[in-house]
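Risk register update: the risk of archive-format incompatibility is retired. Evidence:
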Amino acid sequence: MTETSYERPRALISDGDFVLLYREGKKWLVRVKSGSLFHTHAGIINHDDLVGRPFGTWVTTSLGEKVWALRPLMKDIILKAERATQILYPKEWGYIVAQLGIGPGSKVLEVGTGSGAFTTFAAHLVRPHGHVYSYEIRPEFHALATRNISKAGLAEYVTLRLADARKGVEETGLDAAVVDIGDPESVLPAVSAALAGSAPMAVAVPTVNQLERVVSTMRQLGVVDIEVCELLLRRWETKIGALRPSTRMIGHTTYLVFGRNVLGDAQLS
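Archived output:
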């Protein structure tokens, strides 16, 4: 998507736009460039055939096959982006933002930028007046996330910090926090200090041992309304006459821990 302002997207495909090409369950994310060709198993697609056409229409490949040109959703851009780490998936993104109340104008802290997947999704939601502050200690992940967020056209809504959040967070009074690192309990005191009173937080951990440490640390910090959950997603095959659950599913990816930040006595004096 070339537009970075908080406006309704254009109806017609333009040079430089991202387009999601779809054919019988296959999806390709392509950035349109006049004069270029895109090769698929179903034939070659000329980018010039896409320019000026409405999103949601189809083009014909060199082999006469029909391919639909769809407007990519933010999840499509994120899931097709370059990655070097395990990411949270859309099944977690939606529940996290609902639990944390993230929306336009929210000021969000993220610890563990990784490839920038959730960073990008959160930035997409908080615009035009909100902001995401994301901390990452590994330079290679910081650089990768910078590329991915810029590619999505959302860099103006994100501050990426190459820093160890365990040593402190620069921002204060933030509306929500998401933590996704290997030892999340170590950063929770700094996260709590950065959040406003009553602000919600979410922590993602893959194992039960980590889960127990996180809950224990939250209780020590006085965090209230603690909730733990795991989200499983099973899709269905949509063939008419043989509608049934898929034999494959997205099972365990992470445990999610939620809680609400409270103010200590020293903060109230």
